[in-house]
Design a protein that fits this description.
Order of helices and strands of chain A: HHEHHHHHHHHEHHHH
Mean pLDDT of chain B: 87
Largest sheet of chain B: 2 strands, antiparallel
Number of strands of chain A: 2
CATH architecture of the largest domain in chain B: Orthogonal Bundle
Radius of gyration of chain B: 34 Å
CATH class of one domain in chain A: Mainly Alpha
Shape of chain B: elongated
CATH superfamily of one domain in chain A: Cytochrome Bc1 Complex, Chain C
Largest sheet of chain A: 2 strands, antiparallel
Largest interface: A-B, 30 and 26 residues
Radius of gyration of chain A: 26 Å
CATH class of the largest domain in chain B: Mainly Alpha
Oligomer: heterodimer
Strand content of chain A: under 5%
Shape of chain A: globular
Low-confidence stretches of chain A: 277-283
Distance between the termini of chain A: 82 Å
Number of helices of chain B: 26
Structural class of chain B: mainly alpha
Strand order of the largest sheet of chain B: 1-2
Helix content of chain B: 40-55%
Strand order of the largest sheet of chain A: 1-2
Structural class of chain A: mainly alpha
Number of helices of chain A: 14
Number of domains of chain B: 5
CATH superfamily of the largest domain in chain B: Cytochrome c-like domain
Distance between the termini of chain B: 95 Å
Chain lengths: 421, 586
């Protein structure tokens, strides 16, 4: 500005002509990559892409290994955040208004019913997929050292997901919501010593009412999503730091001698990372560039997830039953489906079904990587070396599924056995 | 990977297309466009035509705040011609709402003016349905989850097929008229008025409470029946009471279809406090109504018989071939009971049987007299001579064919009929006591005195039958017991207070703190502990029997022997205390 004459060849016209490309290049500092260097650089310099490593192991990209379950969970969460925020514009957490808002969503709000369908089905989907993701990780032995803590984080993520879905269940304030939460929170009330207090803190009252609605709303739209985002971030970060996804032993890069770092070379800060992933020197490997291999896979999973949720949301409307009637419990009153296994157990024994067995299960999940210290059988489905662990795990999973199926389809009025056929 | 990716992307595109199409091409827009076109062609002045030309489809709504909860009625979004008289001959939804003088609409200078303007009343205040909905299935309440489908027009898919056709018709809308027009003889709501009369005439008020109308406690409170229940449920509950609740003992009143319809419409109009009422009105109605006496029934020769039918007595009782299966046989009642008993019992059944479930009906005294006279005049065939036949005819309804105290109506009697299969009881009491119970009846219970129609040999015959066929064991010779004939302790205030202390210490677990036989253990005990506030019973029992029961227990029941724990003086105090409870009631 002060010395315009110093660049006589730049006219205003050229500035204008180059404006688009200058803006573009200032945002995307790399051209569409065509060389390996550019591919690395693209992953490395883009804020949104730098969560990926520059190169990933081929095993990571095998669809039959991961089944894309972790990614599907993430994308479902993203769909839930987007649709949830849009729904928040219309929702009022008040016992007198919530149900009317549901009716308005269904009738008058543009895309209202579709947003609600997407949110509802994605939420159910996320609970199921997160659970399946956990099964995948266990059955491939991916929780073993050095990924123990990431497994623990995963279990916490599963619990938070369940709680998110549970808190969202109450918000429509219809009979289904009211009685499911009444049943669900009374299961929590069976916990010894703190059960009743826990139930009271959760509901803000002795029964489900305005206080409970407000608490569940705040938990659902603020507290739990924030917690989930934080935990997801740590979960992903740990994947990178633990050396990428698990893979078979023979495919794993030879680990450098642990403990002593030979002072052959001065490492940059990035070098101070232990584990088998840092590529220092020319180690032969089976890795490929993240751009475009990993990105295409992710895009594929994303589009598949979105299209599936869209189709389901178009075909099936989220249920909305009659407005809350405190005097008229449905018979039977059922908890949300993912807690029906527990409710079925509660029908045999309140303590064992409500607290004993689920508490034991969660404790076993948390402790699994610290109990099972063998290092074999990682990175393969149903590895022979892991027959015992897999059998125990699958038995528990199948039992849980059976109880959920019984609770969902085979239980009629007064929790008596009925045939759905 | 590229092909599936392409397919999935295409699916995303298609779904978006469908969603956007649904969003921007609503059914109601087509209705509105059709209306604008039709109205333009019907219009005779240019200004209106230009106005119609400029109108674009939009959601129409009326927000009504004057009638209870806020109603947001978007019905006129489709029914946009509802207030346009030119569309009288059109098909729904473009049909104008009919005008009628009966509804209070007036014809002024060739133009109808509505009494119930849509801007003030909306639609759902009268019609029900879901005002916020914009799709037929939701707005008309066809969706099974909506509690208020369009009254008289819509039946929901899950309603019983045999009832659904009966639940249609304009008459059902009267239930909503009555929300404001609460006058009992309002001409616009004939079905509600008839239902209200039936509610009294068919004795519904005896068991059911409706705030401001009745105070029955046996059945569910119907004050908000119209708010809680849909018409199909109401219909079903009346014609098949046990369809909803296995344990219901509501009788089947065998009403004809138009009576049921009127009752359903009346009940549908019970929605708590009506729009036109204040709580003060409700209280005044309560004062006026709960004491109201049902107008006398027919007079004349057959009045008693006719009344018995009109008042639906056989919905519970048995008489001839009609049997409600809930209450005792009336065939002999008029012959075995004396007139004061009948009269007292009619006025208030609990004055003679304190735990009777029979409600106090508000019939005028002359009706009671006529029914009593009719019952007394019944030429019931004399009971058979042979013991077994007598038992079957007179005893089995309560005590059961097998004598196990589990007869057809036993469940509804309190105290329960004696279970003759409890041999410990039957063999521990002397024969004269049983003879006395049959001859004189048991005070304060449903056991009537049979001496008026049973000869001594018949009484002995039926007792022999019971002892030989049911009990099957000989009566044990009672040991001589040291029992006073008369309570030796004088009924002084000190004695009564002492008796109360002992009672509270020893007896409340079963007999209850109020001595009404409803202690915490009483539910598990059969026969149930005695209600010691049952004046008629307690007064019919001599001191000697009270002493015996307390000191030596009652065999075959849960009453234990207290002779080792309680001194005879304390027993005397307790007896005084129990006697004092009866005096307190008088």
């Amino acid at each position: 500005m002060s010395t315009p004459t110093q660049v006589p060849d730049r006219t205003a016209l050229t500035t204008l002509r180059e404006l688009p490309s200058n803006v573009w290049n200032s945002i995307f500092r790399n051209p569409l990559p065509s060389t390996d260097l550019e591919r690395s650089s693209t992953s490395f310099t883009n804020f949104f892409l730098h969560i990926h490593p520059v190169k990933v192991h081929k095993n990571t990209l095998r669809p039959v290994y991961t089944l894309g379950l972790g990614l599907i969970s993430l994308f479902l969460f993203l769909i839930l955040v987007v649709t949830g925020v849009l729904l928040m514009f219309y929702y009022v957490p008040s016992t007198t208004q919530a149900y009317d808002r549901m009716l308005d969503l269904r009738g008058t709000v543009a895309f209202g019913i579709f947003l609600r369908n997407m949110h509802r089905w994605s939420a159910h989907g996320m609970v199921a997929i997160v659970f399946l993701h956990m099964c995948r990780v266990f059955l491939t032995g991916a929780y073993k050292k050095p990924r123990e803590f990431n497994w623990v984080l995963g279990v916490i993520l599963l619990l938070v997901t369940l709680f998110l879905s549970f808190t969202g269940y109450l918000l429509p304030w219809d009979q289904l919501a009211f009685w499911a939460i009444t049943v669900g929170t009374s299961i929590a009330g069976y916990a010894p010593l703190i059960g009743k207090q826990m139930q009271f803190v959760l509901l803000g009252d002795t029964t489900v009412g305005q206080e409970a609605l407000l608490r569940f709303y705040v938990l659902h739209v603020a507290v739990l999503p924030a917690l989930l985002v934080l935990l997801i971030a740590v979960h992903f970060w740990r994947i990178r730091k633990d050396g990428g996804l698990s893979r078979p032993e023979k495919a794993a890069a030879p680990a450098p001698e642990a403990g002593v770092v030979k002072l052959k070379k001065i490492y940059g800060l990035q070098g101070f990372v232990r584990g088998p992933f840092t590529k220092v020197g020319n180690v032969p490997d089976d890795s490929v560039y993240s751009w475009p291999n990993l990105l295409m896979a992710e895009l594929f999973v994303f589009v598949l997830t979105v299209s599936l949720i869209l189709v389901v949301s178009l075909a099936f409307n989220a249920p909305l039953e009659q407005p809350v009637n405190v005097m008229h419990p449905p018979n039977p009153a059922k908890a949300p489906w993912y807690f029906l296994g527990l409710q079925e157990l509660v029908s045999y024994s309140a303590f064992w079904g409500g607290i004993g067995i689920p508490g034991l299960m969660v404790a076993m999940l948390f402790l699994a990587p610290y109990i099972d210290r063998t290092t074999h059988g990682v990175g393969r489905w149903f590895a022979k070396e892991r027959l015992l662990a897999n059998t125990i795990f699958l038995t528990l999973v199948i039992l849980n599924v059976i109880f959920i199926i019984i609770g969902t389809f085979f239980r009629g009025p007064n929790w008596t056995f009925v045939s759905p056929f | 990977m590229r092909l599936p990716l392409a397919i999935a992307s295409f699916v995303v595109l298609i779904v978006h297309g469908v969603v956007f199409w649904n969003q921007f091409f609503h059914r109601w827009e087509r209705h509105q466009t059709a209306y604008f076109e039709q109205a333009r062609s019907l219009s005779k002045n240019d200004r209106e035509r230009a106005e119609l030309e400029s109108r674009a489809p939009r959601i129409e709504q009326v927000v009504v705040t004057s009638f209870g909860d806020t109603h947001v009625d978007r019905c006129t979004t489709c029914h946009i011609a509802a207030d346009d008289p030119r569309f009288a001959g059109f098909a729904e939804p473009l049909k104008s709402h009919p005008y009628s003088e009966a509804m209070g609409d007036v014809l002024r200078n060739g133009r109808w003016e509505r009494r119930h303007k849509f801007a003030d009343f909306g639609c759902t205040v009268c019609h029900d349905g879901q005002g916020r909905g914009l799709e037929t299935v939701y707005s008309h309440g066809e969706d099974e989850f909506w509690p208020e489908p369009l009254l008289g027009y819509v039946t929901q898919a899950n309603w019983r097929k045999d009832f659904s056709p009966k639940l249609k018709g304009k008459a059902y809308m009267e239930a909503n008229c009555a929300q404001c027009h609460t006058e009992e003889d309002f001409p616009g709501t004939p079905h509600v008025n008839r239902g209200r009369k039936l509610f009294y005439a068919m004795n519904c008020y005896g068991c059911h409470k409706i705030d401001g109308m009745s105070e029955g406690t046996l059945g569910p409170d119907l004050t908000e029946a119209g708010k809680k229940f849909k018409v199909d449920y109401l219909w079903e509950s009346i014609v098949e009471p046990r369809a909803n609740l296995d344990t219901s003992f509501m009788p089947d009143f065998h009403l004809n279809q138009s009576d049921v319809e009127s009752l359903v419409i009346f009940l549908k109009s019970r929605r708590g406090v009506n729009f036109a009422e204040t709580s003060l009105d409700r209280y005044k109605a309560h004062v006026a109504n709960v004491a109201v006496v049902i107008p006398p029934g027919t007079a004349g020769e057959k009045a008693g018989e006719q009344l018995l039918a009109d008042r639906a007595c056989t919905a519970c009782h048995k008489l001839g071939d009609r049997d409600g299966g809930i209450a005792p046989d009336l065939s002999y009642e008029g012959l075995v009971r004396d007139n004061p008993w009948l009269s007292d019992h009619f006025q208030n059944p609990r004055s003679r049987i304190p735990d009777s479930i029979m409600p106090a009906f508000r019939f005028p005294a002359e009706d009671f007299q006529k029914i009593s006279a009719y019952l007394g005049s019944l030429k019931t065939p004399p009971p058979p001579e042979d013991g077994h036949a007598t038992y079957t005819a007179l005893c089995a309804r309560c005590h059961g064919e097998k004598g196990d105290g589990n007869g057809k109506v036993a469940w509804y009697l309190d105290p329960s009929p004696r279970d003759f299969t409890k041999t410990a009881f039957m063999t521990s009491k002397p024969r004269p006591r049983f003879v006395n119970s049959i001859q004189e009846g048991v005070g304060g219970t449903s056991m009537p005195p049979w001496k008026r129609i049973l000869k001594d040999e018949q009484i002995n015959g039926v007792l022999d039958y019971v002892m030989q066929t049911i009990v099957k064991e000989p009566v044990k010779e009672p040991r001589t017991r040291n029992l006073p004939d008369k309570n030796p302790v004088a009924a002084s205030p000190e004695s009564i207070a002492g008796g109360e202390r002992v009672f509270l210490l020893r007896c409340t677990g079963c007999h209850g703190r109020k001595a009404d036989g409803k202690g915490p253990n009483s539910l598990d005990i059969l026969p149930h502990p005695r209600n010691l506030r049952n004046q008629w019973f307690v007064e019919s029992v001599p001191d000697r029997r009270l002493f015996e029961s307390i000191e030596y227990g009652v065999q075959g029941t849960a009453m234990p022997s207290w002779i080792d724990q309680v001194s005879q003086h304390d027993v005397g105090d307790v007896v005084n205390f129990i006697r004092s409870l009866q005096n307190a009631r008088k």
